[in-house]
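Researcher: Good morning. I'm working through a list of sequences from a screen, and I'd like to move beyond sequence-only analysis. For each chain I'm collecting a predicted structure so we can compare shapes side by side. This is the next one on the list. No need for commentary yet; just the structure.
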Amino acid sequence: MATADNQQQDGVFGGLHVDKHVKYIKSLDKRHDEIEYWMTEHLRISGIYWGLVALHVLGRPDALDRDEVIGYVKRCQNDDGGFGGHVGHDSHLLYTMSAVQILAMCDALDQVDASKVVSFVCGLQDENGEVSGDVWGEKDTRFAFISVAILSFFGATDRMSVTGVVGYVCRSMNYDGAFGSQPGGESHSAQVYTCLAALAIAGRLDAVDRDRLSSWLAERQVRSGGLNGRPQKLEDVCYSWWVLSSLQILQRTHWVDRKRLCEFILSAQDADSGGIADRPGDVADVYHTCFGVCGLSLAGFDEYPLGAVDPVYCMPVDVVERAGLRSWMDKIPESWLAQ
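Model: Good morning. Structure tokens for this chain:
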């Protein structure tokens, strides 16, 4: 088992620039003179989520001011119960999920009106079981997962038709065993994660063609060791999460070369300023920093004691356990565990 003293040199552990990544994340809300800060305003609450997850996994959960984070998130909640990407922005399931996850990591879910959040989420499901991201009606398997995930935090999955969600997810399964954004949509690694996670929470992983899907996911690894989102596409650090989390749910992470994957993620770091990019040579951002660090954790990187990540909720295992949500593991088909 690795310790924080292993191969330490200027905050670098086995090639992982821990201290610089922490400093990079902490600096993101102080770059008010940069145009990128203002152009990403609509993603502010998700950016905090990505940064906070990375900090937890890196063992620095207190690097951001807890009270400031909680206060900001609460200001992003609208009268309809949902949360916007920034203060004054329209409510959307994506940002509501980030808000709930942030509050859970800060142990502050009791600081919002749960009934209003639940009502907002349930109001986005139609009679066919499909879920929209907001009042404008875009439907996507991402939203199917997010809806049941948010409700699970409040013990309210019985307030919506989980059967309807499962049906929608299953209709979005393709001949290759993978999933698209909707019925007939192209198979994509990120959609695979959302669909598997939804089925895991619903206790319906038995609906998956495990072998076929595992093979499709394993084929996402390319020569560099990185993973892509679909055939004939470039590798990208974020798929270290989307693919590996799915394989973790399927109990099949050993179907890819995890050592080479770790090497690819490490090669995409900014060794000067911190942060991780989509691939080597590109500009780092907090999104890829989060999923790169989480990918290293799932891949078993052992040069630094990274925190364990729950593959369904993309949050630290201890936080998910505290919320009483690790019960999805009890619903994994027994035949999967025997292999």
